[in-house]
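QA checklist item 7 of 12: single-chain prediction sanity check.
[x] sequence parsed
[x] length recorded as 397
[x] structure emitted
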Amino acid sequence: MDIFEKIKCDERMLRAREAKESGLYPYFVPLDGTEGTEVTVEGRSVIMIGSNNYLGLTTDPRVREAAKQAVDDYGTSCTGSRYLNGTLRLHRDVEERLANFVGKEAALVFSTGMQANLGAISALVGPDDFVILDKDNHASIVDGVRLSLGKMKRFRHNDMRHLERVLSGIPEEAGKLVVVDGVFSMGGDIAPLDEIVPLCQQYGARLYVDDAHSLGVLGGGRGTAAHFGLTDEADLIMGTFSKSFASIGGFVAGDAEVISFIQHHARSLIFSASLPAPNLMAVLAALEIMETEPEHVERLWENGDYMLEGLQALGFNTGQTETPIIPLIIGHDEPTFLAWKLLFERGLYTNPVITPAVPPGQSLLRTSYMASHTREQLDQALDILATTGRQLGLIPN
């Protein structure tokens, strides 16, 4: 059989073709320009409420200037892997600053957040070890476990009774790593570390927290463990630069000995080109702002709370969110795509999310808010959402 034959009957491809033919295909929309809270698409301005730019720092003049200066000082690429010729002093500076920021001994920078999870998990976990995952964890975590050849166990989302049942069924002598998202990127809810930590201690498991959507958001910006006052109890903290840090890349932080082990075993680090200087300088500039100007995190929460109150008052189903990530749960794919299209045509950018990113019957529009959104933009977004929601019967008239 021709290996390409399966493409003709692949369900995802069939659905994509149907959506394109009906004019409802919502993915890979090219942006002609972006200024953070607004983007330009085919010559018209659209309010962005689908970005992970939580603190709005991608367009901060200080971050832009830092990246520009780095191009002048270092060029555009390191032309090598971290393991060989691709480590700049800047990499070490970023790692030291990040470790201090999240309260750990050491940190290790990867070229993407995906690579951070792939590399760290596959380096630490062996064939005789068990990794215990929340069912709503990011795909990069699942793929990291697959690469490790370890044994994967999953528990129902934020269900602590089920987590304990899974842990109690694993041999006592086996290595165990519990991995959770700090903030879940689709639902906006928070992993209950205050309940997870005691279970990890009881059953001899280590804890790995993916703070991709928590840094810059929770704990004064320092993440989920800081939010709960459990920084010492989270063995490893992972983060990405493509959200609050206004760049691209990722890192893992923890005890120096553990980080050194990952550094010498993570294939996604050893066999990838290292993060270029402009990206590193953007991270440093964003980190400096986060450390010295807490008002950005405060404004993020003010905007998120304002939108949550407004959306719930209109009658939208916002699920279990606890953060400025606010899902609008619709249920089925076609009305989700239709809602996306109407909102987009009316000047509002959201993200339609369907299976497998969410469970069947839980299709949603993912909305998220920034510290840099103005109240005028948020009110305009609420007006567009109200008009569209009533038209489609998603909220009461």
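[x] summary fact logged: The first helix runs from residue 11 to 21.
[ ] second reviewer sign-off
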